[in-house]
Amino acid sequence: MQEITERKNSEEKLKESEEKFRTIAEQSFLGIAILQNDTVSYVNEQLAYKFGYTTEEIMKWGVGGFMKVIYPDDRKMVAEQAKKKQSGEPDTVNQYQFRGIKKNGNIIWLEIFSKTINYKGKPADFVTIHDITEEKLAGQKLKESEENFRTIAEQAFMGTLIIQNDQVTYVNDALLQIFEFSQDEVNYWKKDNLLKLIHPEDLHYLREYREQLRSGESDIKPYYSYRVFTKYGKIKWIDQFSRPIIYRGKPAELVTIMDITEKKKSRTRISKTQQLKIGAS
Description:
Layout (H helix, E strand, L loop, with lengths): L1 H26 L3 E6 L2 E5 L1 H7 L3 H5 L15 H13 L7 E7 L5 E13 L2 E10 L1 H23 L3 E6 L2 E5 L1 H7 L3 H4 L4 H5 L4 H16 L7 E7 L5 E13 L2 E10 L1 H20 L1
Antiparallel strand pairs: 1-2, 1-5, 3-4, 4-5, 6-7, 6-10, 8-9, 9-10
């Protein structure tokens, strides 16, 4: 009699536990499913919605039926992980990303968190899924934008660099040629490395100019001319244009530099010639 009572109590607790699980799962914004014996033993509304099916349709899928919503190139990995977790095997990957196929044929990106659980007395694969399609598309667009920027910058005759968190995160070939450095030499450069290239007599004025830019003064020119040293000690005159940008999702400074050394020399020669003419007259 006691054995029967204990069994009933155990069944009631199991029933209560399952009801609590379903209540939580149905209110979750994550897609949730339980795989057992390669069939879907449970699926919530969110997961069904992500794939464009109803829960009733998914629950009718047979053995291995869930594989039809996995992108072909990702099926091997997903199937392997699902099998291991349904068997309770060790050495599993609990979190990874894969592509899914909606009922209408659209491809979506998903992030899965899964692990082995005991479900109705047997091992099963407890799966939670998050749709990351928008994040993936945003990342892809950002990558394409950066590639387009690099393509344009590498063909430009003006030097270009990006400074972020006082770190030089990008320089183009034109800038390397102006300062006579190689790419390897400027890797991991910080803002202080750039300051050392500025002629000491111009550093104070450049700081004043940058402070005016930061304060938002409207009556200042969009560039500043100053002298710099190259790697081999040559003195060059440059025009610098700077503006704030968002780079890889964070604030940064885009700096464009033009070598105006020859223009400065030409102006100096013209000025001297004019002075000589005035003196001769």
